[in-house]
Design brief:
Layout lengths: L26 H19 L8 H4 L4 E3 L1 H5 L12 E8 L18 E9 L6 E6 L4 E4 L2 E2 L6 E2 L2 E5 L2 H19 L5 E5 L4 H8 L2 E5 L3 E3 L4 E3 L2 E5 L1 H9 L9 H21 L6 H14 E4 L5 H9 L9 E5 L2 E4 L2 E7 L1 H12 L23 E3 L1
Parallel strand pairs: 1-14, 2-9, 4-15
Antiparallel strand pairs: 2-3, 3-4, 5-8, 6-7, 9-14, 10-13, 10-18, 11-12, 16-17
Helix pairs in contact: 1-6, 1-7, 5-6, 5-8, 6-7
Length: 373
C-alpha cells in the first residue's frame, strides 16, 4: 500500500554522507543482484503457476515476521489499493552459496528494490537502491548476539542487513521513504542459474559486443538466448560495458528483468507440468518472504493479483543519487529528486521524469546496451 510517513519518520532526502571509495563487488554479490531481479520478475509474471504444486512446495518457503519485529514505530498503513514490497538479495556464503565466495560469517544485502504496485494492479514501478548509498540507519535489534545496534547518521545502506537482518532493512527503507512496506521478499542466489535454465533461457539483444573474462561472458552484437551461466555473466559484467560503475550495471539488470518478465509470460507453463514443477520448486526454495506470504496458497494469491502486469507496464528507476564529493565511490540521495520519488509512490502516482533527470544513474552509459527480444 502506498503510505504516508508518520510524524516520527524524517522526510527523505535529508541525508548527508561521506565515505570511502567503493571497491568492485565480488562475483557472489554480482550473482545475488540478478537473483533478486529474478524474484521480482517471477513474482510479477508467475500468475497462478505455484498453485499447481501447492502441497509439494508449501514446505519450501521460509517466513519472517516483520510486523512483530518492528512493532508500531512505522509509517502509517494507508489502504488505497496499492502495494509496496521490499525485494532484497543477500550475499550470505553459507550452504549452497559457498561456491560464490568464502563464508566470513556475515551477510549484507547486495540488491534492494522497492516494487510499488499501483491501485488496480495493472502497472508498477521499481525503485533500485544502490547498495553503497549513504543513509541514516535507525536503531535495530541485532541478528548476532543480544541487544540493539544504535542509530547511525551515516552508514552504507547494505550494512542494515548485516546489523539487523530483514527487519532492519525494512526499517531503514521505511525511514528514508516514509512508506510502509506491505511485504518482504529475499532471494538466495544459488538457485538463480537453475531458474533460468528451467525457463529454457532468456532472449536478449545486445547492441554491442560484451566480453568479460571474469564473468566468462563473450557475446557479439545481436540476439542471444542466455542460459543461467550466461545470464549471471551478463549481470556480473562491470568493466566490459560502460564506465564500470555499479549504477551502469543496475541499468543492465533492469533491462534483463524486463526480458525475464516477457519470457515467463511467453511460456505455457501449464502446458508443461514438469517445467512448471521444476520452476516452482526452485523458486520457492530460493525465496524467503514475510510471514504473511510464507505459504504457497498466500503466495499464489499474491502472484495472481499481479498477473495482469507486463514488462511494458513496469517503470524502472534508480533512487536519485549523486556521487559523494568527498568520496566518488559512495553515493548520496539527492534531496529534491528523491523526495519526488517517495512522494509519488506515497500518493500512488507515476514517478515524474524530473525526479531522475540529471542524476548519477541517469547519466550511466549502459542505456540500451541490452534489450529483451
Amino acid at each position: 500500500m502506498a503510505d504516508q510517513g508518520s510524524a516520527k519518520e524524517p522526510r527523505p532526502g535529508g541525508i548527508r554522507a561521506t565515505g570511502r571509495r567503493r571497491k568492485p563487488p565480488g562475483r557472489g554479490r554480482r550473482a545475488v543482484t540478478i537473483a533478486a531481479w529474478s524474484a521480482v520478475g517471477l513474482t510479477l509474471a508467475g500468475g497462478g503457476a505455484l498453485g499447481f504444486v501447492y502441497f509439494q512446495l508449501d514446505g519450501n518457503l521460509k517466513g519472517i515476521d516483520i510486523n512483530a519485529a518492528l512493532g508500531t514505530d512505522r509509517p502509517r498503513n494507508v489502504d488505497n489499493g496499492s502495494m509496496d514490497i521490499l525485494v532484497m538479495g543477500s550475499d550470505s556464503r553459507k550452504g549452497a552459496n559457498a561456491k560464490y565466495g568464502e563464508d566470513d560469517g556475515t551477510s549484507r544485502s547486495d540488491t534492494a528494490m522497492i516494487l510499488h504496485v499501483y491501485k488496480g494492479h495493472k502497472k508498477a514501478s521499481v525503485v533500485s537502491i544502490p547498495r553503497d548509498t549513504m543513509v541514516s540507519r535507525p536503531a535495530c535489534k541485532k541478528t548476532e548476539g543480544k541487544g540493539t545496534a544504535p542509530a547511525v547518521k551515516h552508514a552504507m545502506f547494505n550494512e542494515s542487513y548485516q546489523v539487523g537482518g530483514p527487519a532492519c532493512s525494512v526499517k531503514t527503507v521505511e525511514k528514508m521513504s516514509g512508506i510502509r512496506m506491505d511485504h518482504y521478499l529475499e532471494v538466495d542466489f544459488s538457485g538463480f542459474k537453475k531458474i533460468i535454465n528451467e525457463l529454457g533461457g532468456v532472449p536478449v539483444t545486445t547492441s554491442q559486443a560484451i566480453k568479460d573474462k571474469e564473468s566468462h561472458l563473450d557475446l557479439r552484437p545481436g540476439t542471444h538466448k542466455l542460459n543461467g551461466e550466461q545470464s549471471l555473466g551478463l549481470v556480473r559484467t562491470r568493466h566490459a560495458v560502460g564506465d564500470g560503475s555499479d549504477l551502469g550495471r543496475i541499468k543492465l539488470q533492469q533491462a534483463f528483468m524486463k526480458a525475464l518478465i516477457t519470457q515467463v509470460k511467453d511460456i505455457d507453463l501449464f502446458g508443461s507440468p514438469s517445467k512448471l514443477y521444476g520452476l516452482a520448486d526452485t523458486a520457492t526454495e530460493t525465496v524467503t518472504t514475510d510471514s504473511e506470504l510464507a505459504s504457497v496458497n498466500k503466495l499464489l494469491g499474491f502472484s495472481k493479483s499481479l498477473k495482469g502486469i507486463d514488462s511494458g507496464d513496469v517503470r524502472m528507476v534508480t533512487l536519485p543519487v549523486a556521487y559523494d564529493k568527498e568520496d566518488p565511490n559512495r553515493v548520496i540521495p539527492m534531496k529534491k529528486q528523491a523526495g519526488e520519488v517517495w512522494a509519488a509512490l506515497r500518493a500512488d502516482k507515476p514517478i515524474p521524469a524530473s525526479a531522475t533527470k540529471g542524476t548519477a544513474s541517469d547519466t550511466a552509459d549502459t542505456e540500451g546496451v541490452v534489450k529483451g527480444s
